[in-house]
Amino acid sequence: xxxxxxxxxxxxxxxxxxxxxxxxxxxxxxxxxxxxxxxxxxxxxxxxxxxxxxxxxxxxxxxxxxxxxxxxxxxxxxxxxxxxxxxxxxxxxxxxxxxxxxxxxxxxxxxxxxxxxxxxxxxxxxxxxxxxxxxxxxxxxxxx
Length: 144
Known about the structure:
Radius of gyration: 15 Å
CATH topology: AhpD-like
Keywords: Oxidoreductase, Peroxidase
Shape: globular
Low-confidence stretches: none
Helix content: 55-70%
Number of strands: 0
CATH class: Mainly Alpha
GO molecular function, one term: peroxiredoxin activity
Pfam families: CMD
Protein name: Alkylhydroperoxidase AhpD family core domain-containing protein
InterPro entries: AhpD-like, AhpD_core, CMD-like
C-alpha cells in the first residue's frame, strides 16, 4: 500500500488549521490519559492504523498500562476503566458512529461527570480525532 497524498504539503494552511485544534486541546485541563483514550477508541472504530500506533505510543509515555490498551475495544466487559472514563468512551463511540446519533442517556451520563467547558473540550477532542482519522485513512498514511 502506498501513500496517496501529503495533505500538509499540498494544503499547508488547512493542515495548520487542523493542527490548531490539537494545540488547543493540549492546553485543556482534561486528563491527558482521557484524551488518549478518546483518540484510541475513535481510531479503533475508524480502523486508522497510523493513529492507533501514534496514540498507543503517546498513552504509554504518559503512564497508560498495556492491559487497558489491549482491552479498550472491550471496555464494557472489564472493570479496568472508571465510570468517568466509561462515560467518555460511550460518548466517543456515539459521536464517532454519528449516523446512530448521540443518545440522551449517553450525553446525560457524561454531563454528570463534567462541566460544560470540559464537555465541550471532550466533544472537540472526539471530533478532532475523527477528522485526523479520515485524513490519514484517505491519504493512506503509513505506519513505520
